[in-house]
Amino acid sequence: MIVLLPYGQLRNHLTNRCMSQNLELTTTINLGHRKRKQHASLHHAVIMSSEEGLQSTWSYDYTKYHPMDEIYKWMEDVERGNPGLVSSAVYGQTYEGRNITLLKLGLKNSEGREKKVIWVDCGIHAREWIAPAFCQWFVKEIVNSYKTNEKLEQMLQNLDIYVTPVINVDGYIFTWTNDSTRLWRKSRSLPPQGSDCYGVDLNRNFNANWGTVGVSFDSCANTYCGKSPGSEPEAKAVMDFVGGMAKQILCFLTIHSAGQLILLPYGHPEISAPNYNQLVSVGKAAAAEMKKVHGMNYTVGTSPQILYPNSGSSRDWARLIGIPFSYTFELRDKGEFSHLLPEEQIQPACEEAYAGALSIIAHVHDKTFTNGTLPNAAVTTVMGFNTVSGVAMTIWCTLMTVLLTAGISV
Questions:
Q1: Which of 58, 195, 229, 240 is positioned for an S-S bond with 191, CB 3.0–4.6 A?
Q2: pLDDT tens-digit profile of 256-283?
Q3: 32: phi > 0 → left, psi -120 to 50 → alpha, else beta; which?
Q4: Cα atoms in the Cβ-side hemisphere of radius 13 Å centred on 57
Q5: Is 330 a catalytic residue?
Q6: Three-state DSSP class for 14?
Q7: More confident residue, 40 or 50
Q8: Alpha-carbon distances, residue 290 vs 276, 302, 354, 410 (angstroms)
Q9: How is the chain split into domains, by residue range?
């Protein structure tokens, strides 16, 4: 006897009609469009696990901030509940030995063509709790809407979206200790010799003009850039993993707070991206979509233009290695609450940020998969001279670092 059931009726039918009989079923499960033919008992175990994951995901409160153990558990539930869409990977460990884990969202395409990649990360600065909240919201929106959103489903067949809810796991956990640690920003690596100040600003530790502007070499400062580029395991994990598939990545989005800004490369005031005008245009389109949601204004520009100069950021590093579109989102607000954004603002902040992120992702997707071309070499303007970022940029970064270390003014 063959029984074909829609997903919503599987549990009742399997329990009431099949488990008491020796029946073989063909069950269509609308989770990633997979079909499996197995005995009823195995079906029941798989479906129960998947259903529990879905129920847990649906009951999860996305309008609250969650400690790290709950985020880890949520990641497991999302993966278990959506086996055709979501998988996970551990791509590094923190200084204190915790896993840095991502969720990969994507569907198979029938043509078997190579997929491109979108990178989204959150929680590189520990105190910016709205960032991990957004990454969870972002995943939830995709999981809940891709089956009824033809455009999103198409994008997921062409793209794999890698989402890291928390990069700075140690620091994030530390902010949950008590009120006195709530505004901790850095990682939790041990102090350098002669200091008693822990941690490094991970967003000053990437190999992008490291140590040149907008950083401190004082380990007690919030912008302490570390001993060398990639000295911190969290930054190195991202550089190793992303760097290994840079040619596949179309867009790099890193989520922060606060200020309501969309920042584009570069943080150094004397360097500009070759596709600067395009980065601005796409960023402004995203800001316009964000404003439509709740009327909030987001300003678009480079960090020196609208915030402050900086170096060693993941955004700049991503562009320097050839990822054509790289942005930092600084979410709500503009100073009233800053990094202590109330929970009642989580939903509106995430709704508008999701609209902005989706705008950028849709743009790079359409440009790539409608016979368009994207810039990949990070040709930059350095102090008035055009150079190709590869060797020339590396030499320039190294020279600047050596000069600064030697105490020479530049």
A1: 195
A2: 999 999 999 999 999 999 999 999 999 9
A3: left
A4: 24
A5: yes
A6: helix
A7: 50
A8: 21, 18, 8, 40
A9: 1-31, 68-370
CB 75 within 8 A of CB 88: yes
Domain 68-370 has CATH 3.40.630.10: yes
CA gap 282, 363 in Å, rounded: 8
Q: Catalytic pick from 270, 330, 336, 351?
A: 330
Helix (H, G, I), strand (E, B), or coil: what is residue 125?
A: coil
pLDDT of residue 113: 84
Q: For residue 100, which phi and psi values (nearest 5 degrees)?
A: -100, 110
Higher pLDDT: 327 or 386? It is: 327
* φ, ψ of residue 409 in degrees (nearest 5): -75, 135
In DSSP notation, 298-355 reads -EEEEHHHHS----S-HHHHHHHTT-SEEEEEEES-SSSSGGG--GGGHHHHHHHHHH
Query: 72-84 burial, b if ≥16 CB within 10 A, otherwise e?
Result: bebbebbbbbbbe
Average pLDDT over residues 167-176: 98
Beta-carbon contacts of residue 328 (< 8 Å; ≥ 6 apart): 254, 255, 256, 261, 262, 263, 264, 303, 313, 315
Q: What is the DSSP letter of 123?
A: -
Does pLDDT of 59 surpass 70?
yes
